[in-house]
Amino acid sequence: MGNNGLSSYIEPSLSYSSSLLVEAPGSIAAVRREQVALQQAQRKMKIAHYGRSKSAKFESKVVPLDNTKPAEEKKRCSFITPNSDPIYVAYHDEEWGVPIHDDSMLFELLVLSGAQVGSDWTSILKKRQDFRDAFSGFDAETVANFTEKQMSTISSEYGIDISRVRGVVDNSNRILEVKREFGSFDKYIWGFVNHKPMSTQYKFDHKIPVKTSKSESISKDMVRRGFRFVGPTVVHSFMQAAGLTNDHLITCHRHLPCALLAIQRPPVHSLPDL
């Protein structure tokens, strides 16, 4: 699947996220209403996080809805530096931490999260289109039917290790099994967080863990179901990428918008315990 196909499942999440930041042109009253809405949302978050830990102390300062500030002046997570590649900065600003509910996109992020182990996100993001082309836009039904010859061709043509290719094909079959049981991969994976993103309150990037008890429990269940390349560290990276957890630092300009997405998303009917 090319870029046009991908935009069909990325753009709804990103456009929804962007709508939280854009001021209504020429309307002071509209801007004020959005600021009041932010204050109300922040009060809800303060109540939700009260008493968790000292690091979870909520900042009550209202974040201005200012899209006029140049991108380079925006406060970002500290792992984004002046030397960071623009493709990585864009990924941080537009995708990381945004809740994703499209099965194909979730499949893609699971694969990319596994591929970046031993590498880095910048390198993987630069190969992202190759992964999409190699695995048919991450359509699980199509990938599940890849033959051994097709897998060998993908490995040689796109420079992806054959064991990784086989792992993606195996995981596509596991996703199909999950979809038959839960209705969608989305319902399965989001069921682990009760269909609501977790919003953390980290002030420093060295405090962000590489795995958590939640990623360990998800990994354990996925391994039990036959998924490959889904260790706790990979799963935690996937959770961050797919917005199951909002690990933007509280000083980052993306923390609040991602947190508001968690608050405003309509509730989903609970599923049986996993």
UniProtKB/TrEMBL annotation:
Keyword Metal-binding appears in the UniProt entry: yes
Ligand binding (Zn(2+)): C77, H92, H248, C252
TM helices/strands, residue ranges: none
Highest taxon in the source lineage: Eukaryota
GO molecular function, one term: DNA-3-methyladenine glycosylase activity
Keyword Chloroplast applies: no
Record key words, sorted: Metal-binding, Zinc
Pfam families, sorted: Adenine_glyco
Name of the protein described by the UniProt record: DNA-3-methyladenine glycosylase I
UniProt source species: Gossypium aridum
Source taxonomy: Eukaryota, Viridiplantae, Streptophyta, Embryophyta, Tracheophyta
